[in-house]
Specification:
Bound molecules: zinc ion
Number of strands: 15
């Protein structure tokens, strides 16, 4: 894996609420210049960081897209395991969280929920108080939410359904290169607006075999997400150097199996003919003149060091 590229995006978890060991909960690591940013913290985000050899406490900021639990259930793990003063944790300053209105309340309640752990570790392990402190920045509209050392993050509202608000995507700009993450959304013009000019556009997607579509539960899920056909239209209109899927909702029932990756690609190809990757956990994109795709070999580099 090349370390010369200074703008990398790694899919830590490409899944949905399905507790699959192959696709962990939604989480994406953005490494730009001197910063490591995390977009969402779904189930297993810490385990993927550990596999990459990235100390959990070295995340500079966590950005939340929305409050569905599959995107947030890993937060206490990133926060508190990152606090441990060992090679896999090692946070030195406050845990920074940036998200839509509601982020402060969520983090305040997590502090309450884990008050006993914090008290115990402060007394027993003498962990630094300043590294368990939480700093929250909330926003309520489209705009720049982070701007530091040439790395700019812009939040933009998306449409995840009438009752699922707020919901945002992120555009990350660094050295005139751009990565965009749709967040959870159905087909939405704002993704096209902020996705235009992206080198890398990472989009969510959902697919179900047609036999499944009579099920009202499946219909409701599909109404909150983007079909491959519609994601293809987003890609065709924004023309990224590389389009990639994450948050792959392969819907199924006990009777009807999930669609295949080949079917997902075929449906996308109805509307889009450009470069496309179906994301996998630990797939890495290096954004330079072109966007290179690397697959991690799952080597657990972090485990070389002992406690
Ligand atoms: Zn989701
Ligand atoms: Zn969601």
């Amino acid at each position: 894996m090349s370390d010369t590229c200074d703008f990398k995006v790694t899919l830590l978890g490409t899944g949905v609420p399905i507790p699959s060991p192959d696709r962990f909960g939604p989480s994406t690591l953005v490494e730009a210049g001197d910063q490591k940013l995390l977009i969402d913290a779904g189930r297993g985000a810490t385990m993927r960081l550990y596999q990459l050899g990235v100390p959990i406490g070295h995340i500079d900021a966590l950005f939340l897209t929305h409050f569905h639990s599959d995107h947030t259930s890993g937060i206490p793990d990133v926060w508190l395991t990152g606090w441990l003063q060992s090679y896999f944790g090692d946070r030195r300053g406050p845990f920074r969280v940036i998200g839509p209105i509601g982020t402060a309340r969520l983090m305040r309640k997590l502090e309450e929920a884990y008050a006993a752990d914090i008290k115990i570790r402060l007394e027993d392990e003498k962990l630094p108080f300043e590294a368990v402190a939480i700093l929250v920045d909330e926003y309520d509209r489209d705009g720049v939410v982070h701007d530091k050392n040439g790395v700019k993050v812009i939040a933009f509202e998306v449409d995840h359904g009438d009752a699922i608000k707020p919901a945002y995507g992120y555009r990350i700009e660094y050295k005139e290169r751009v990565a965009v993450i749709s967040g959870d959304t159905r087909y939405n013009e704002n993704v096209i607006k902020y996705g235009t000019g992206a080198d890398l556009l990472i989009h969510e997607v959902a697919i179900a075999k047609s036999e499944l579509m009579s099920d009202t539960y499946i219909q409701r899920i599909m109404a909150h997400h983007t079909t491959a056909h519609d994601a293809g239209i987003v890609f065709e209109r924004t023309k990224p150097k590389l389009a990639a899927y994450t948050h792959l909702a392969f819907l199924a029932s006990p009777q009807i199996p999930r669609a295949s990756v080949a079917e997902l690609i075929a449906e996308t190809r109805q509307t889009y003919s450009g470069p496309l990757e179906v994301g996998e956990d630990l797939m890495r994109f290096e954004i330079g003149e072109t966007v290179k795709v690397r697959r991690c070999d799952f080597q657990m580099r972090g485990s070389k060091t002992t406690l």
